[in-house]
Amino acid sequence: MFYLSLIEHTLRLPPHLLHLPLDEALKTELKTLFIDKVIANLGLCISVYDIRSIKGGFVFPGDGASTYTVEFRLIVFRPFIGEIIVAKVKESDANGLRLSLGFFDDIYVPVDQLPIPSRFEVLPNMRNRGRWIWDYGGEQSDEQDFLIEETNPIKFQVQNVIYPSIPLEQPENTKPFAPMVITGTVNNDGLGPVSWWEEAEIIEDKS
Amino acid sequence: MKIKEANAGALTNFEVLDFLRSRGASKDPTRVIVSIAPSEFKVYDYLMESPACNQTKEQVSEFLTRCESYKLAKAEVLNIINLRPSQLVEIVPIIEESEKRFGEKLEELVNLVVEVLPEPPKKAVPEEEKEVEEDTADGKNTDEDKTETTNPEQIDEDQTEENEDGEQMETP
């Protein structure tokens, strides 16, 4: 889920940070620049791990601040394909599920990646939202109703991670731009809400 | 900005949690004082709810040495440490072609996981969860090697959970 990445960056150190020791000042500046931002093909930056080297310290003419070239390591969140992650259900609508990790919300499980067969039951009073129910087996009816509800943690497997490019213009009512989108699947043994698999013995025999 | 090495090493959830703890993250509400960004706290909260919250360095390295005989891919080992599967059905999606490569030995692998890595705390009300966490950590620590208190790395870091464990182990 998390990787270390070695990055080199040239940055300007604003003068109000000059009272701090150099590496702390640079760390503060790097944090403002990188944390909680997505770098394309690298992932979501979580934290600055350490600083490897600092070079430079030149002051360019006309500028009040010095410029440094810093080499440092970042902890990035970049799940690999096939990784299994536990997340919480954020939204559930007719197109599928949207899952959230707390620090990252753009995880989608489209309809075709839910266990087959599933049916969608619309909640009363809500137009688009509802919950998904897995129709498992023909014999049991109400006892083995497998629901995907918003409170349970759910395990999914990463299918794909894409970094859509920044759009030039966005129409008003669409969702805010997501720089990193993870597509997942729940259609496999052991995936889906964790509570489904707690009575695993029964299910294993049937499958 | 230049990316020198996009992949300078994979980290388990436990290692990231350890790093955040060493910077001062913790569960209590006085979070404004430490130099950790709110988004880092979200990662910390997520990791505290995963099985990584109870793990220690020794357990992770012990698991790594003991699972070498199974010839697992790096990604599979990472998944196992992060998820701590306790049943056969949980480990099946992690390992590719599990039938061909393992067959019977898969059960042994599950038993190894259950033996070496601690159980994650059961989901409960947040206040109770912290107590349950410390109880299970104590239970497991008395079974494992008692080198935890003498490990210099652990003592240097300000980890209140480790210190409490140390105190309790000396009294009986």
From TrEMBL, chain A:
Keywords: DNA-directed RNA polymerase, Nucleus, Transcription
Location (main, coarse): nucleus
Domain named RNA polymerase III subunit Rpc25: residues: 83-173
Pfam family, any one: RNA_pol_Rbc25
InterPro entries associated with the record: NA-bd_OB-fold, RNA_pol_III_Rbc25, RNA_pol_Rpb7-like_N_sf, Rpb7-like, Rpb7-like_N
SUPFAM superfamilies, A to Z: N-terminal, heterodimerisation domain of RBP7 (RpoE), Nucleic acid-binding proteins
Name the UniProt record assigns to this protein: DNA-directed RNA polymerase subunit
UniProt organism field: Hibiscus sabdariffa
Automatic annotation (TrEMBL), chain B:
Residue ranges constituting the RNA polymerase Rpb4/RPC9 core domain according to the UniProt record: 3-120
UniProt feature, compositional bias: Basic and acidic residues: 137-148
Ranges that cross the membrane: none
Nucleus is among the record's keywords: yes
Biased composition (Acidic residues): 154-172
UniProt keywords, alphabetically: DNA-directed RNA polymerase, Nucleus, Transcription
Domain of life: Eukaryota
Disordered: annotated segments: 118-172
Species the sequence originates in: Hibiscus sabdariffa (roselle)
Protein name: DNA-directed RNA polymerase III subunit RPC9
Gene3D superfamilies, alphabetized: 1.20.1250.40
Predominant location category: nucleus
Family membership noted in the UniProt record: Belongs to the eukaryotic RPC9 RNA polymerase subunit family.
Localization, UniProt: Nucleus
SUPFAM superfamilies: HRDC-like (SSF47819)
